[in-house]
Fold:
Amino acid sequence: MAFLDEITIEARAGKGGDGVVRWRREKFIAKGGPNGGDGGRGGHVYIRAVRSFRVLDQYRSRKEFFAEDGHDGGSRSYKGADGARLTIDFPVGSVVTNATTGAVYELNKEGQEIKILTGGVGGYGNEFFKSSTNQAPDRATKGKPGEAAELHVVISLIADVGLIGFPNAGKSSLLNGLTNAQAKVGDYPFTTLDPNLGDLYGYIIADIPGLIEGASEGKGLGYTFLRHISKTKVLVHLISFENEDMMKAYETIRDELEKYSAAPQQHDNGLASLVEKEEIILLTKTDTVSEDVVEATVKKFKKLGKPVYAITLFDDGSVKEFSDELIRFLKKE
Ligand SMILES: Nc1nc2c(ncn2[C@@H]2O[C@H](COP(=O)(O)OP(=O)(O)OP(=O)(O)O)[C@@H](O)[C@H]2O)c(=O)[nH]1
Ligand SMILES: [Mg+2]
Structure:
């Protein structure tokens, strides 16, 4: 399923419960003193940062989110219960704008909660209005409406691992091999049009569309999605053995990352440079060449001083081995 980039939803805090007019029942007295209770406060609306992108699925169909209204007051001075709060979850890294007030909230840390809409106060029951001059007030007030707003949410997911490389390098195939994602795989370039995400024992892996030369200037598709991997802990750079010159393929992508990171708007965002990120080099499709070629190429890439692995998706053992290495690497981070 395509990854949601931006969403707009409506949210509303609960209305306050109404105050009520009630009278004490006393023996031999037709009407006792006032004892109508106040209404409860409406539930507030909170936003919360969670480490899962699955929460986004609910926003595909649902657009309105309401906190519970406060309950009305009752007789015998009974105050109505406050409405339950509503917590709306977004992936860590999301930025939520209240389009009604312009307030902006950044969800940067897992578990972080921010109250964004306040529930309406409850109304007063008639007991509240009792005074020395008015022993039998006939009056109660209504609860106030809760705050409501249109929320505009930009999702910039903090994935742990970003898969990068040329189109057809095998990124989506690898994501499917490592996780239970079901990303579309095709033997043609630009199969992936939107980022795919998968979950590897709690670590989020992002597979973005293939990059090409000129990507940093907007060529191809990958450019707009580099933002999704700008906060990852590590990049896995895939280079297929189908490339005639694998080192050149590697350098072309590194060049684009460098150019992208150097663009002024990236610094304004305070994003870490993509070239300075930890990188694992993954040579793919080893089944298309001889073992000697694999060995020689691994040796050549190891000179870059980075971790280098070679795999084929056609061998489960090969994928499992890389998966174990990746988990070890992430735990160490
Ligand atoms: N021989 C061989 N083919 C592979 C291997 N891994 C993936 N492929 C094939 O390579 C083609 C491209 O795979 P994808 O996973 O779609 O590649 P991608 O990098 O996601 O491509 P884009 O989404 O276009 O950027 C598909 O036909 C896959 O079946 C492998 O280990 N060996
Ligand atoms: Mg793909």
